[in-house]
Design a protein that fits this description.
single chain; six-stranded antiparallel beta sheet; six-stranded mixed beta sheet; 18 helices
Amino acid sequence: MLQFSPLFVIYTTNLLSMKHLLLTVLSLIAFTICAFAQLTEQQQIQKLNLAYQQIRNLYVDDISLEPLVEEAIKATLQRLDPHSMYHNREEMTKLKSRISGEFAGVGISYMMHNDTLVVRSVVANSPASRAGIMPFDRITHVDNRSIIGINADSIAMLLRGEVGSNVTLNMTRRGIRNTLTTKLKRDNIESSAISASYRIGDVGYIAISSFTKPLANEVYEAYKALGDINSLIIDLRDNGGGAITAAIDLSSMFLNKGDIIASTEGKTRNEVYYKRQDKINLTIPLVVIINENSASASEMFAGAIQDHDRGVIVGRTSFGKGLVQRIVDLKDGSGMTVTIARYKTPSGRIIQRPYEMGEGDKYRSDTLRYMHPDSIPHDSKLLFYTLKSHRKVYGGGGITPDIYIANKEINLSEEVIKAYTSAAFEHAIIDYFDTEEIETIKSQHPTIEEFNNNYTPSNTLLNILNSYIAHTELTDTDKRFICSMLKALIAVELYGRFAYNYIYGIDLDHTLQQAFMTANDAELMHTTLTAQ
């Protein structure tokens, strides 16, 4: 048995006491430093409050502090990452409506034509549809106030309001001499996030414009409506994201129970999102289209599909926004979107591309990175592997497609481009249907497939459009573009809002054409998803 002398025991005891004392002192120092740092932050806030108090009390003129405070908040957030920003009351209302997928209104889309509001479409089961409002109706007054010549944003504010509130509309209709008056009760209007859904042959196509909370249910209903298809295209081009929960729900439809969808790393908490149940499990071969404007929730979905080797990603490299944001409400109805975390794809990739704090303009102007599949420098430190086939994928710069499809520009004359961007085509359609019967055209072309194959815009319609285009010698490319655009816009009146995407996609959308070729090629899809 080992024995220790009394001197050793005393020495050891003293050493332990000194160690305990040292730890106590260090803890006190650390506490003091933290308390000082916290006190310093409080002093900074007090400094800001004092500055505003002195400005309010001493400044030579009476001023409102509201715009000064707004500018201060904007300036502060601009010093952070490029996606943290301030929103005034109106912007906050629009932001929440976009994420929730609904707003309170009457249920029409419209455009201003010769200073007059012309109804372009009516939402099904909305106050407007129940009141019998029709496309091409001209609304002249809202609550007895003339809206002739008023800008579209101001009119939107007049049409929207509290659920259950009343609004009176005066309008004119072709073929009816007297002015029509109708009283509507505003209601929640569900704005669908699906901008197109149709099939060509055995391939289904669903285009998603944003990630709203009810998105997964909308996509599933659209998928069922497509019927018996062999493969599915999900188009996320120009989709800037939305609710992360919607990206989780949509990903869950195509993954297996227990699969990781994404994870987040932040100051307050870290989370891992899994597919937790097998309510819906679609196993159909999948193609996802992305481009340089696909961001945030779009990239989360595309990253999950790519990392699990669940579908082929085609198109161009995505935006590279891998930040999770929280909406913070302020007392006056304004608010902020504040970055609270970074998210990772299932393989561990951070999708957020590099940025410098306070350099938002520089960050947003970086467009050359999208122009070629090799334009993004892939750092070996950011190399990851997909979870099933172990294909190489990279983080730190958006989602790079498995199959890169270059953007094929349509070489149009400047006059035609100007006419297109100024909505001249839409104005020409309104003028045309002031004299032409929609049902007459539809009786001649009962299906959209037959319409697309056989319809040619009439000379009357072409002459109306020419009145909106500066005199120029049209090229063959101009003529083909004009014909396709007019066909697409007329198709909307005949077959519904998805018809535009159908006609445009078949005639002019090079990326979509290539995506359909990929979806139809089972061998190409299998080879792409299993390549090492």
